[in-house]
Amino acid sequence: MNTTIASVNDDSQARLDRLADIAQRLLDRCRARGASQAEVSSSEETGLTVNVRMGEVETVEATRDRGIAVTVYFGQCKGSASTADLREDSLDATVEQACAIARHTEDDAAAGLADRELMATDLREFDGWHPWAIEADHAIDLALACETAGRDVDRRVENSDGASLGSGSSLSVYANSHGFLGRERSTSHSIGCALIAGRGDAMQRDGWYSYALAAEDLEAATAIGRRAAERAVSRLAPRQVPTGEYPVVFAAEVARSLIGHLIGAVSGGALYRKASFLVDSAGTQLFPEWFAIDELPFLRRGLRSSAFDAEGVATREAPLVSAGVLQRYVLGSYSARKLGLRSTGNAGGVHNLQVAANAGDLDAMLRGMGRGLLVTELMGQGVNTVTGDYSRGAAGFWIEDGAIAFPVDGITIAGNLRGMFGAIEAVGTDIDPRSHIRTGSILVGRMTVAGES
């Protein structure tokens, strides 16, 4: 992809210096008002988004946002306030408002900053800053080229939901009264297209997109459009399958949702509220013995790489699942205290999960499965995190003799997540790079598929 990278006039460090200075001054004001602890988050974000459809420009939007959030603690009483106005009187009012809220809240034994000794000291960057000096006209040209390439693939592609290009950058500073000050800068870029094949009741929609921290890592716009068209055409003339129990392969782009359900179930908020089917599951066997998930926060150009979490706690490489056994939970300081545990450096979420593969690519997995369902799209929100019950609408392809036989839609797949985790038979090498959950396709040995009665 032909890109122009902004580097000569990069003022990001100066802007970070300004955010850091504001954060330090706000902490001083919190102390002056009697706060026993305080923390400040400050950020600036810029972005450009263009949308086109059927060869015409629909929207062009340039954004520039900023925000300051102040949290104070008077003992274990907490108050928070925020503003986007950096004038001194507005900053003063924000601190005063946070303090007033804290003085009217009840004590919470779990409230407070993360423990001082957990603060990060090695504040590295991980090659996540790649501004794209793209003008709106060039962005429009790329989006149009993406859509046109897709519409030209097959005469059955007669309509479009449009193509888009987005580019953004974010600067953030987190500081607290332990003396911690962390600075981060990141960029993200995307190109995507959604196309419609067929006519009337026979229409099928599908798409494709590319997402990366650096523009040079994006797929070519024309290749994205062609892939979107191929996916839409491949779904024409779908059939249903008889209701029954079958092996199911989740394609990589939807397989990460299974890992996302695991993360939700082992996150501190769900656990201390007893709203998870995995309460008291640390140390138990949830997956087959070969299965493993590692958290890798220090990956170069990792989508969620960071030296510290949202509370300044040092991140670390650590297994989440090893030999099929859940090794730990995903905790910030508040949820950790509620559970009588320590923060795992996951305030704000996980940092680059890597699911170990034990199989080949998707084609090899389908050949190994022989007969069953390949899921490429999931619909609905039919997942109960309290019980683990899973029931979602799905579309994809029926597999016979290890190869795609015909497209399928209008079906429901169902099971229980605990049972599904234990029934995983294979993870592929076909990792989808567009997510911080890095997994290939996942084969679940048996699920209920509700199709034709």
Automatic annotation (TrEMBL):
PANTHER family: METALLOPROTEASE PMBA
Keyword DNA repair found: no
GO terms, molecular function: metallopeptidase activity
Pfam families (alphabetical): PmbA_TldD_1st, PmbA_TldD_2nd, PmbA_TldD_3rd
Protein name: Metalloprotease PmbA
Gene: pmbA
Ranges where the Metalloprotease TldD/E C-terminal domain occurs: 243-451
Family: Belongs to the peptidase U62 family.
Sorted UniProt keywords: Hydrolase, Metalloprotease, Protease
Gene3D superfamilies: PmbA/TldD superfamily (3.30.2290.10)
InterPro entries for the chain: Metalloprtase-TldD/E_C (IPR045569), Metalloprtase-TldD/E_cen_dom (IPR045570), Metalloprtase-TldD/E_N (IPR002510), PmbA (IPR047657), TldD/PmbA_N (IPR035068), TldD/PmbA_sf (IPR036059)
Start and end residues of each Metalloprotease TldD/E N-terminal domain: 38-102
NCBIfam families: PRK11040.1
UniProt-listed GO biological process terms: proteolysis
Residue ranges of domain Metalloprotease TldD/E central in the record: 130-236
Source species, domain of life: Bacteria
